Structures are given as C-alpha cells and as structure tokens.
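Customer escalation, tier 2.

The customer says the design service returned an amino acid string that "doesn't look like it belongs to this structure." They asked us to rerun it and document both sides in this ticket. The original structure tokens are below, unchanged.
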C-alpha cells in the first residue's frame, strides 16, 4: 500500500470517566499529534467528534476523535471522510490493541476488526471497506477473555502507561512517511525499533 494518509482517527470513549484508560490509546495519540503540531482539536458536532487539521511536510492532514461511544465510531469517520472526499485507503485509524504488549505499536492495512468494536463499526460505516490503515497501540491482554471489557476501560498501572506513551511518541515519527505514502518505510522504522 502506498496511499498517502490524509486523515487520522484516534479512537476512544467520550467522557471524563474514560480519559486515559487503555481503550482511549487512539484518542491519546491523536491529541498528542495535534499538540506536537501546535494545534488543538475543536468540537465539530456535525461530524460527531473533535476535529482539526495539521500540516505534515506541506500536506494537510485531518485529525478526528469521535465523540460517539467506541461502537459507533463509524458515524464520525464516515461523516468527516465523506465531507472532505477522503477515500478509505487514505485513512489511518489509531486504536488500542490487546494482542500487543504495552510499548509496542504496529501498522497494518486492511484485515478484519479482530473483535474491536470501533473497527467493526468503521468497516460497516465505510460500506464494508476494510482497506484503511491501522496503527495498533499495544495495551496487553488480561489473560482471560471474560476480563477484557473491564480491562480496556481501566487505566493502566503507571509502569505500563509509560510504555504506552512511549509507543505513542515513537509512532508519531512514522507519520511523515505515512503522509508521503511510504508505508514500507514507516513499518520498517516502527516495527524494528529497540
């Protein structure tokens, strides 16, 4: 895939009780990226989220944090993408990933939702199109499927949270390559870091 990223979506749940929980790793990424570029995301009710724009290597990139709950994320993604005529392959969705340890982040393109309700809804809202990029921020797994929903909605212990924040900062560096459409280079950089 060498489609340039034109829109970055950070998934999370709205409301103070979910702030800084594991499930909000994607939202944390989008907010950190906006901050790093001297921007703030503003409430955009018509697109069901907070949105903004950053410039990366001279190119406009839209940022979006849906204000719907995770399982309705697609509503916001489809709304902003349709408004700015951004194709699914130009979208990067950033989300928490149970199958990766804290401190690990990986890029992929396409594939299923892997049980992630945010991805499931986005795939559906984009007309069952799975060809968007994903940046998966590792949060670890509680070890038991029955404990997952409680686990993702809790804050990680400080040691794990530091690793998650490190992965977010490391991942930010890949954005320059992704906006240029250099997916292989971005993957190589992210997947082979120390």
């Amino acid at each position: 895939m060498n489609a340039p990223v034109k829109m970055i979506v950070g998934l999370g749940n709205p409301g103070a009780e979910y702030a800084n929980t594991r499930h909000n790793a994607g939202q944390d990424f989008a907010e950190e990226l906006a901050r790093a570029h001297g921007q703030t995301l503003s409430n955009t009710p018509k697109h069901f989220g907070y949105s903004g724009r950053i410039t990366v290597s001279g190119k406009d990139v839209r940022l979006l944090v849906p204000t719907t709950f995770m399982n309705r994320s697609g509503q916001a993604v489809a709304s902003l993408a349709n408004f700015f005529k951004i194709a699914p392959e130009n979208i990067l969705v950033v989300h928490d990933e149970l199958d990766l340890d804290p401190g690990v982040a990986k890029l992929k393109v396409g594939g299923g939702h892997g049980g992630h309700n945010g991805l499931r809804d986005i795939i559906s809202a984009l007309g069952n199109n799975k060809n968007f990029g994903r940046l998966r921020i590792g949060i670890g797994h509680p070890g038991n499927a029955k404990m997952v929903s409680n686990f993702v909605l809790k804050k990680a212990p400080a040691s794990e949270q530091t690793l998650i924040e490190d992965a977010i900062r490391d991942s930010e560096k890949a954005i320059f390559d992704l906006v240029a459409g250099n997916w292989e280079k971005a993957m190589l950089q992210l997947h082979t870091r120390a």
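Tier 2 assessment: The sequence is consistent with the input. The first helix runs from residue 25 to 36. Strands lie at 7-10, 42-44, 49-56, 59-66, 91-97, 105-109, 133-138. Sent an explanation to the customer and offered a walkthrough call.
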